Amino acid sequence: MRGMGAENIYIARSRDESEKLGLYDIRRNYYPASVKLASDSRRDPESKMIVYVEDISVALPSQLTKAIKLIRGLEAKYDILMTLGGHISDGNIHPVMWVEERDGEGYLS
Predict the structure, then answer these.
(1) Inter-residue contact 76 to 41 (CB < 8 Å)
(2) Tell me: the pLDDT tens digits for 65-93?
(3) How many angstroms separate the CA atoms of 14 and 59, rounded?
């Protein structure tokens, strides 16, 4: 995962260890933090953000790196703003993407 740019990797061997490490707090706060990032990235402070959450399941752990590369490739190709998190042990990846609402003339105010 470090080769894919992961800044932090946390591993817990039990639920108790997860609680002690604060991993459930990270998981619980991932979506609200992503929404805050979306809000903070608005070009027009009066505009609305459209936030889309995806839940991707990768059945084979050996394919996680490939899936993350594909997602990051789409992010770059289409200039999508997103965060990418998940609980890798069961193969779940959660991209949270957002766009600023706009009309035909530009960004809505």
Answers:
(1) no
(2) 899 999 999 999 988 899 998 877 788 89
(3) 22
